Input
Amino acid sequence: MNPMAGSDVVISIRDLRKTFESADGRVLTVLDAVTFDIHRGETVVIMGGSGCGKSTLLNCLIGEYSIDGGSIHYCTSDLDVPVNICGLSERDFNAIRRRIGILFQSGALFNSMTLAENVALPLREHSYVDPSIIDIVVTLKLQQVKMLPHRDKMPTQLSGGQKKRAGLARATALDPEILFYDEPSAGLDPVTSSAIDELIIDLSRKLQVTSVVVTHEMDSAFRIADRMVMLDKGRVLRIGPRSDFEALRDANAQSLTDPSDRLINQFLNGLADGPLTDADGMSEFEKLIIGTAASRGN
Output
């Protein structure tokens, strides 16, 4: 069955399962039966507490992690039929990667290259564009993110916000259909964070791309999202339009009877008391990470 037939779905995730093995040999499930669709042209924000699986989900979507069950179908404009990337060869997946761009949390710029050279790299590696045209494209991409005056600077000469802008210019170099953002506001002051959000909104509108944003910054999430996905303990707790989550955020916690509603309300408002902190507050994956770090320290 074609999960995307006759629809505007660009990514279809079905029963996605990802596990990791702990130091003592236990198999820990980090993503458990995750299922939802991402529609063409929308901005989807994936959120949840530390250890909920959102970063793992992002890494599965971009092919960095193999999965243990389920499927991830892509349907970009150059594909005649949806393609399940799970188990796809590196060569075949590279063709899909050309249709996606990724803004990593740190910007992930190469320190040995100028800003212009960083932006040109995807064009040199994954296209047959003439060198004279590459320079024009680089200029246009830097103009889009308001970084053209800095084109000849090295990454070490840029501020955190400028590195994010530069990373976004590089992520859009090949005119992707889908943009993935990993914590785009992390480590930025509120003014710079807001400016990055406005840039995400502006690029989504001008380039008509589908955007998938992983973040725990709620101010940013509510500025940019069309739809929101809340993960908890590796499962999709809730998915819906931004307005649904705004209503839950603004609700009186005492009036909420559904446990999931109370948990989401606590998370969105950053409250110290509630179902998220009634227990020890850590997922099994968080305990695995802490346990591994402790054992290395010994």
